[in-house]
């Protein structure tokens, strides 16, 4: 079965005027300064301001409604608040899952279900690099894959290296660059076809567009395989995340998810279908007993909680909240592989 995921951003939705024009002008000016936004001419600026106004008014309206309805999260402005849905649409996806992988149980885990810790946060163990910004490029699949690779490399070697999502965007021929991509293809490319040379971010920097593949470059980290967590198996995913960060596909097309701000556990709407990829870097339980996953996104530090989100866990639905249990992947690495080499 082909699962095509689209990292869909959100439309500017009309609502009644909640702020004066002068207030909106001031907020827009401050937003432009914060995000370094400039426009080519007055016409473009007026167009963007109108879109910004619609988004801002919708955010204000929804925050008021959420407060009245007792929802525990807020929406906010981000890097894309002057763009339409057509401009913000980006894609990512998963290829057909190989039958031998989809039907098999993972064998990597060395702990029983009874030994799973109550909470894990790989940020506290130095296994998570800084939050990245994919921008207008639909490269969520590459960023999610890379974050999982970075985490495992640090856990196995003790060295945290920022690896290159641009390399996957340019060189994984099973995906379609900034149009869309597949977690399965990305992991296959990174761990089987080119397991000896995943370049670092410094040597293969992010450009936000697909370029000609540079496949003759010294690698920064090496990997030897990958596994798919059994679909819908929360306990198996907990086992995996207890040992390393895990890439996963989720549904993330709803406006509330896209504009989420804050450190609260997110229980809001996700979207009708799986269309985005993130990395699970931990899990935990709140003081009042609510379970959650810790996800790392690739929408910059101005989304969520400095680029992260606590996503409600254990909802009882088949794929859990936002379908996070549908397609989780993790890389493998034998400790004997320590010296990556250039491609031949």
Automatic annotation (TrEMBL):
PROSITE patterns the UniProt entry points to: THIOL_PROTEASE_ASN, THIOL_PROTEASE_CYS, THIOL_PROTEASE_HIS
GO molecular function: cysteine-type peptidase activity
Domain Peptidase C1A papain C-terminal: 116-332
Domain Cathepsin propeptide inhibitor stretches: 28-88
GO terms (BP aspect): proteolysis
Keyword tags: Disulfide bond, Glycoprotein, Hydrolase, Protease, Thiol protease, Zymogen
Annotated protein name in UniProt: Uncharacterized protein
Organism of this sequence: Trifolium subterraneum (Subterranean clover)
Lineage: Eukaryota, Viridiplantae, Streptophyta, Embryophyta, Tracheophyta
């Amino acid at each position: 079965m082909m699962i095509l995921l689209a990292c869909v951003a959100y439309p500017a939705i009309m609502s009644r005027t909640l702020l004066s024009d002068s207030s909106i002008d001031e907020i827009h000016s401050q937003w432009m300064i914060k995000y370094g936004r400039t426009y080519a001419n007055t016409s473009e600026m007026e167009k963007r301001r109108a879109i910004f106004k619609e988004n801002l008014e919708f955010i204000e309206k929804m925050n008021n409604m959420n407060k009245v309805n007792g929802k525990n999260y807020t929406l906010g402005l981000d890097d894309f608040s002057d763009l339409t849905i057509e401009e913000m649409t980006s894609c990512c996806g998963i290829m057909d899952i190989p039958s031998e992988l989809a039907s098999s149980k993972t064998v990597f885990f060395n702990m029983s279900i009874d030994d799973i810790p109550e909470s894990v946060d790989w940020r506290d163990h130095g296994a998570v690099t800084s939050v990245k910004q994919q921008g207008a490029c639909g490269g969520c699949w590459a960023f999610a894959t890379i974050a999982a690779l970075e985490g495992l490399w640090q856990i196995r070697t003790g060295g945290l290296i920022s690896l290159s999502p641009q390399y996957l965007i340019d060189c994984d021929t099973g995906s379609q660059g900034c149009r869309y991509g597949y977690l399965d293809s990305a992991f296959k490319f990174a761990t089987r076809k080119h397991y000896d040379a995943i370049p670092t971010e410094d040597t293969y920097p992010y450009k936000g567009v697909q370029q000609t593949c540079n496949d003759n470059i010294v690698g920064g980290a090496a990997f030897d395989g990958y596994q798919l967590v059994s679909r819908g198996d929360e306990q198996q995913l907990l086992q995996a995340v207890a040992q390393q960060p895990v890439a996963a596909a989720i549904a993330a097309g709803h406006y509330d998810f896209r504009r989420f701000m804050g450190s609260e556990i997110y229980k809001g709407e996700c979207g009708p279908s799986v269309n985005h990829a993130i990395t699970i870097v931990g899990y935990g339980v709140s003081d009042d007993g609510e379970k959650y996953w810790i996800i790392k996104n690739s929408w910059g530090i101005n989304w969520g909680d400095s680029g992260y989100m606590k996503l409600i866990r254990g909802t009882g639905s088949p794929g859990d909240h936002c379908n996070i249990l549908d397609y989780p992947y993790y890389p493998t690495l034998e400790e004997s592989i320590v010296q990556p080499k250039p491609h031949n």
